[in-house]
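Journal club prep — side note

Before the paper discussion, L.F. wants everyone to see what a predicted structure for a comparable chain looks like in token form. Sequence:
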Amino acid sequence: MAGFVGSYPCRLDERGRFVLPAKLREKMPGTIHITRSLVDDCLLLYTEDEWKVLEEQVRELPTTTNRAAKNFVQVVFGQAAECEVDKQGRVGLTSYLMQAAGLDRDIILVGIGSKMEIWDAKKYETNLSELDFDEILNGISQFGLNI
């Protein structure tokens, strides 16, 4: 696990590329995979190793007999993009992914442990301002997490 933490403001250029901060590039050798989040209006960025873990988990899903499993795989894998970081440290997003997450020029990369989220900066600020911390604590209590 790469252990992504922190937030990194970035800017999309006219071709839908952003410069991956050097601190993050060190944790992302090889191909990176970007797909839609099913929970929020953002994208998820996986390292090659974390993507392989997800592929292994998905391999066990009954995609030919369970519509929810099939739809999950269709969205997460069918709409994903395999990306390479170029020599200038840039990552290109497809127009489909940018549109799906409502990304404008200013974006923010948010570390969430094993992967990163890619948010439109304004949407992310709105999302943060609307969080109810009591609701969060009540929701995660079922997992036995002690912080």
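L.F.'s comment for the group: The beta strands are 7-11, 17-19, 32-36, 43-46, 81-83, 90-92, 106-111, 116-120. Keep this in mind when we get to the figures.
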